[in-house]
Amino acid sequence: MVIFSVIILAWAVWAMYSAFNFQQQGNMESFYFYAIASSVAIVLAVSSIMQMRRRIVMLQSLATKVLSIVLCGNCGFKVVRAFAEGDFVYKEVGKCQQCSGTMRVDSIYAEEPAKKSRL
């Protein structure tokens, strides 16, 4: 969709250039046609690109975060971190920072995105 909008925008710029050439030649009928057509195309292409950008930003804000809880078996020290590829429950992920015990993935969960209230 973005490529289509960029192609329309490029055509509109070319049409505007052609319109000014027709004006210099004195062909006012072609000038008006190309000027109006290119103006409409520019507005539509820019509007389409801006709508797609808004949708992408909205979809990124709705994305859920997947988190892993890493827990020490000895002292109970807990770390919440972003899910890493290859994580699974009971996977050993290193030594505890406090007691040098074994840290294991205790649970994996998805955090719901915060809902914005509209006033």
Number of helices: 2
Major sheet: arrangement of strands:
2-1-4-3
- Summing up helix and strand content along with how strands pair, one would put the structural category as alpha+beta
How large is the radius of gyration? Answer: 29 Å
Residue runs with pLDDT of under 50 for 5 or more positions = none
Overall shape: it is: rod-shaped
Order of helices and strands: HHEEEE
Please state the average pLDDT score: 88
Portion of residues within helices? 40-55%
Q: Oligomerization state of this entry?
A: single chain
Number of strands: 4
Domain tally: 2
Could you explain the architecture of this structure?
With about 120 residues, this protein is an alpha+beta fold. It folds into two domains: about 1-60; about 65-110, Rubrerythrin, domain 2 (Single Sheet), CATH 2.20.28. The chain contains two helices and four strands, in the order ααββββ. The protein has helices spanning about 1-25, 30-60, and strands spanning about 65-70, 80, 90-95, 100-110. The chain has a four-stranded antiparallel β-sheet with strand order 2-1-4-3, with no helix packed on it. A hairpin with a 5-residue loop joins strand 1 (about 65-70) and strand 2 (about 80). The longest helix has about 35 residues, at about 30-60.
Which helices and strands appear, and what pairs or packs with what?
Layout: H1 2-25, H2 28-62, E1 65-72, E2 78-82, E3 92-95, E4 102-111
Helix pairs in contact: 1-2
